[in-house]
Amino acid sequence: MSSSTVSVSAPTPTQHHPFQRKVDEVKPSKPDIDFLVMDYLISHGYPDTAMEFTKEAGLALVEDESIEARVEIRHAIHKGDIDTAINKINDLDPQILDKDPALHFALLRLQLIELIRSCTSAPGLDITPAINFASSQLAPRAATNEVFLKDLELTMTLLIFLPSTDLQPQLAELLKPQLRQEVAAKVNEAILISLGARGEARICALYRARLWSEKQAREAGKDIPAVMPLGLEPSPVQSNGNGEAADVMVQ
Amino acid sequence: MFRRGSYAQVASGSTGTTQPNSIPSQSGQFVRLSNSGSIMLGTGILGQSHHARSIDADGYHASMSNSLGRSGPAPSYTSQMSHMGGYGALQDGGAPTFFVPSYLQGSRYAEKLEEEHKARIAAYREQRSSNSSNAASLSTSSSSVNLHKPGHSYRGLAHEIIERAPSFVDEPIVSWPTRWDERDKYPQMEVEEDGRLAKFAGAGKSAHDEAAAIRADHPMPRQCGIYYYEVTVVSKGRDGIIGVGFSGSKVPLNRIPGWEPDSFAYHGDDGLCFTSTTSGKPYGEKFGTLDVIGCGINFHTNTAFFTKNGRYLGTAFKDLKPNMQYYPSIGMKKNNEALRANFGQEPFAFDIDTMIQHEKAKIQQEIVTLRAQSKEHGSTDETQFIQGLIGQYLAHDGYVETARKFAQEVRQEAKALSPDGSADVSHLQTEEDIDAVNRQRIRAAILDGDIDKALKHTNAYYPSVLRDNENIYFKLRCRKFIEMIRSCAELNAQLQPTIPTPSSKRSTASTLNKRNSTATDEYDFEMELDEQLGVHNGAPWENEDDEDDDLEAKQKKLGDLTQAMIEYGMELKQEFANDPRREVKRALEDTFALIAYENVRESSLAPLLETKGRVPVAEELNSAILVSLGKSSSAALERLVQQTEALVSELADDGGPGAFINVRKDFLQ
């Protein structure tokens, strides 16, 4: 069949910039994009979505035996149930935490934070479990590592200030769900790498390559548009009225 | 850029005034001819009528003159052909030698060049087979080719080329150096071994500082990031006055490179490196017979380096002009001096691959560092952004159920994470989109090969889309026809092994096939239709003694299908036969050529039948519907890929860091 395609592109503010034409000329192949999506769903652990996607997009099923375990581990970390998470990681492969002391320490510290959180949740509760856990599990590891030691000390100060609604930012960080999310992502990566897979989804690398290349191009004085929106529909929160700058990638 | 008169320009866009769909970018493609001295004039320059004649100096380039015969797609094809002469292919009749230097393997630049090369080979083969069947091989005089009736034997060749290698539509890609250029040398230099060996062949007793230099056929391409080549000193002669390096296109060739402005070289007799002057600066050791000297430019840093016998000698030159085209160049002065070049045809003595790997790793590191920085702002931004991208793509492309599941799983994740069990998934589009459902239904129908259903749904929900996008409507119609041929072929294949075909029938069929494959002329179309009909309908009665009812039913079905297919074909032809658009004509011709084959699956047109051909039609229709709804035709995720690719290529063209990135290889696989 003829390959001549009619270019159909919705009007965008940057349409008339010569660079936009070059962007439009790039024709990403559908299988490549589907691959990006599938790779993300598998590596970041969305098994139901991945299954549905194979059906709807007519793709071959990607086998990944670790996905269920990874989802459970992520779930456990997100909930703050670090004990379960560590057990499950060790069930998969005890080497993962043995080989990555920083990751192991990060998990144990999360567990300590949860202990502190629970034993300071009401006045008069016993704080010895937290102290015992810190001295038996974390202190030996921190003794030989500056960074670990600092982290441990900072975490222990939570005992002094909690319960409080007005923590200094550094301490408040420790209680935010983002910390769990970050550790969970690191654990996921470590498991994937231990299985010989790529640690992070390709889309994450692509996203950063996009940021990097724009930065480089601007530094080199290339003639590119001032803003290059992706066309992500602005979510209600981000919407800024004109609906175009909301999704500009900012560094 | 192109500096010498020996490049002939063949502007091949055909007559732009009468062909609105001509390929303008084809014009301006420079064509290099293998036989020195043969110069072509532009034939049919874009926007002008065909009044120019090509002057064929040696009568060799038959294909060139053929372009005068017709105004269709042929010129672009001929331009590819004559370009091949530059590889010395037409003389020996073999495929042009193509090589990728080891360090460029996997690079975007090498990929592009390889695609172009493959298309050229395909065109060459088709041209040869087409020619031989018409008793007009390349070696016959040009006049015999000229005598062909327009539109007869070259049907569809050029657009085949374009379809296989979309990159042709872009600017032509300039090759890396492949050989010493026989037309860019001082007379006393001799070139042998397919342009690899250069030797001094002068009297040796000429003027005092008279020397002989030569340049390669192409400049060192900036988009390599780092370009590198090597020479082996086959013989250093008595004094070994040899220079290896590079120079601009205008540098005089009667001097050893390095002594003139814009020329740079490392000299064998003293081991010094020279630029613009006859007094060199200390650099490396002397070199002589059997030494391998390598020369490279880093276009990112605009510096040059040399190697000796696989050993890196350090930076020799800095501050090369960023806008200058540098050609590999060597110079010699005495008899018995000879150098053999390795432009990447063979493994290099120096481990240039590792050097390139190192550059690549550096850039990947920079990208990862960016990750670390963005992590400081909190990884949630990135996580949410990417979840948004995925969710929007699923919705945009009509994967309704997948999008729903994704939102569900992301919500579960957010719930587990949040202290109060609430889930903020505002970055995902969660509302039901009735259009997405419809679009998915239409896409699924096309992917299933059920074009009628797709047409019906499209007309029901988006009546304006097919009206406003006639070309998509046409493609759907063609696809339906192809699907009908597919079902016929499938059924036929099921029947085939069980039917003992009479040998006479088989031989008729095969001769028929043979004829069809060489002369798929649309004028024969109707006649072939009848023959085709006869073959299929005749079979059941010849096998009356066959006891299988099921088989008979199948035969009946095949007859019906074939009948329906032919009727549909006639209808299609009637509807579009008078369409003046070239791509419509081509598509019609291609599609109809399919029925000329009894066993289509084994013909060269088999790819047209593949189910993956449904995907582009489905995507095009999906895009058109989106546009009709006032939405962007491509998803944000596709934009991300497009922008990255365009930005990286912007960073590669001048030898910047983009040269070391292959977006598809590095990020999409």
From TrEMBL, chain A:
Superkingdom assignment: Eukaryota
Q: Which PANTHER family match?
A: RAN BINDING PROTEIN 9-RELATED
Q: Where is this region: Disordered?
A: 1-24, 232-251
Q: What PROSITE patterns does UniProt report for this protein, alphabetically? A: CTLH (PS50897), LISH (PS50896)
Domain CTLH residues, every copy:
66-123
Q: What is this protein called?
A: CTLH domain-containing protein
Organism field: Bimuria novae-zelandiae CBS 107.79
Which Pfam families does the entry mention?
CTLH, LisH
Q: Could you tell me which SMART domains the record lists for this protein?
A: CRA, CTLH, LisH
Q: Which InterPro entries match?
A: CRA_dom, CTLH/CRA, CTLH_C, LisH, Ubq-SigPath_Reg
Regions of compositional bias (Low complexity) in chain numbering: 1-14
Free-text function comment from the UniProt entry: Involved in the proteasome-dependent degradation of fructose-1,6-bisphosphatase.
Automatic annotation (TrEMBL), chain B:
- Region feature (Disordered): 1-28, 124-148, 497-521
Domain CTLH, residue spans: 435-492
Which spans does this entry mark as compositional bias, Low complexity?
Answer: 129-144
Domain of life according to the entry: Eukaryota
Regions of biased composition (Polar residues) lie at 9-28, 497-520
Q: Which residues form the B30.2/SPRY domain?
A: 158-348
Stated role:
Involved in the proteasome-dependent degradation of fructose-1,6-bisphosphatase.
Supply the PANTHER family for this chain: RAN BINDING PROTEIN 9-RELATED (PTHR12864)
Q: What is this protein called?
A: Ran-binding protein-like protein
Report the source organism. Bimuria novae-zelandiae CBS 107.79
